[in-house]
Design brief:
This protein has 15 helices and 14 strands. It is of the alpha/beta class and 389 residues long. The strands form 3 sheets. It has a 7-stranded mixed sheet, sandwiched between helices. It is globular and about 60 Å long. The protein binds pyridoxal-5'-phosphate.
């Protein structure tokens, strides 16, 4: 089989029909580029769903995975392992000060579930405050704190009580947190699916202060914003706010599925043996990938690159009168018209981008290795599409 159509037909025969897919079958990736089975290349500004922050198939990560695969693919947390010890130490060193405990799991949703479970145990409370517009994952607990009813409908009774507060309204946030004294307040600091909406630093400071006053745990869902993507290792560090827990996934393994919860030392001290656990969390292959990916983030100064990419993209948007929001390699561009046809037009020109819950906002989650020249080709394609329209 050699064509996109043939592979699409074979996959559709057996895959549960739950994803709307682009009509391409991808076979290769390198840097900001992916290639389909027919050899056509695409500039990946969608970043493999926000995973490829290091670029696709970063050679250092690929080599680390190959080396680990030669040694030991997997053993569980029943035993210690050099790969896990190294990855954990590096991650704790890059984490905000005083958050030196790490719990590894396998996906973003699982990371949020784990954080909320820790919060419930540590506080002895069950309710959670979440933020309108947030996305936290598809497992039942994470889903209960996800705003869009298209994801949540039919599963409302799956979790303890959840109260949603508006993003950016400090007064309401403080009032609700002090009144409800929840186990946790969970927030996606930049709402990616929500169109890259965020709030002023003062809002996050209010959440931190109110949580400390109410004895509630503040959880930053940094599944997308973490690992250097917004210009610092975590968004919490970028804005100087200190949550009790931070969840990471997406870019953490450089393309290998893995997630982590960073936990405040005082909170971690309340977690006992057997309270959290997963077979595959902290497995050697994933740990080798994490250690190598974090080394690349540090050595190649990817946070700095993320800021350069933001500045270059933002300047291009400004020239065209397009408003953008987000930070670093997470950008929402408001076209003031539905972006569906523009996204399809870009894909036809070999450029992958994403939509969001706001039909007018296009999402870019590009790799940090994106060049000024590649950004130029994105805007040239946008100009052609807008002129033709
Ligand atoms: C902010 C955020 N949190 C959690 C998740 C869930 O992560 P996963 O799909 O790995 O379970 C996602 C996934 O897109 C996300 O964007």
């Amino acid at each position: 089989m050699t064509t996109n159509a043939e592979w699409m037909a074979l996959e559709d025969e057996t895959q549960l029909a739950t994803y709307k897919k682009w009509p391409i079958a991808l076979a290769k990736g390198y840097g900001s580029t992916v290639e389909d089975v027919e050899g056509r290349t695409y500039l990946d500004l969608y970043g493999g769903h926000c995973v490829a922050f290091l670029g696709h198939n970063h050679p250092h990560v690929v080599q680390a995975i190959k080396d680990q695969a030669d040694q030991l693919l997997f053993y569980s947390n029943a035993a210690y392992a050099p790969a896990r010890a190294r990855a954990s130490a590096r991650l704790a060193r890059m984490a905000p000060e005083g958050m030196s405990k790490v719990f590894f799991i396998n996906s973003g949703a699982e990371a949020n579930e784990s954080a909320m479970k820790i919060a419930r145990k540590a506080t002895g409370r069950a309710n959670v405050v979440a933020v309108e517009g947030d996305f936290h994952g598809r497992t039942l607990g994470a889903l209960a704190t996800t705003w869009e009813t298209q994801y949540r409908k039919g599963y409302e009774k799956a979790f303890g009580p959840v109260t949603f507060i508006p993003l950016g309204d400090s007064e309401t946030a403080r009032e609700v947190i002090l009144r409800e004294q929840p186990a946790a307040v969970i927030i996606e600091p930049i709402q990616s699916m929500g169109g890259m909406r965020t709030a002023p630093v003062e809002y996050f400071q209010t959440l931190e202060a109110a949580c400390r006053e109410a004895g509630s745990m503040l959880i930053f869902d940094e599944v997308q914003t973490g690992v250097g993507r917004t210009g610092a290792f975590t968004y919490a560090q970028l804005i100087g706010v200190r949550p009790h827990m931070i969840t990471l996934a997406k870019s953490l393994g450089g393309g290998v599925p893995v997630a982590a919860v960073l936990i405040d030392d005082a909170v971690a001290a309340k977690v006992g043996y057997g309270e959290q656990g997963t077979t595959f969390g902290g497995g050697m292959l994933a740990m080798a990938a994490v250690d190598a990916a974090l080394e690349v983030v540090e050595n190649e100064h990817l946070s700095q690159r993320a800021r350069f990419i933001w500045d270059t993209l933002e300047a291009g948007c400004r020239e065209r009168g397009l408003r953008c929001q987000g930070a670093g390699c997470l950008m929402g561009i408001d076209f003031g018209q539905p972006v569906g046809p523009i996204i399809a037009g870009l894909r036809a020109k070999g450029i992958l981008t994403g939509g969001s819950a706001d039909p007018n906002i296009m999402r870019l989650m590009p790799p940090a290795v994106l060049t000024a020249e590649e950004i130029g080709s994105f805007f040239a394609a946008i100009d052609e599409i807008l002129v033709a329209a």
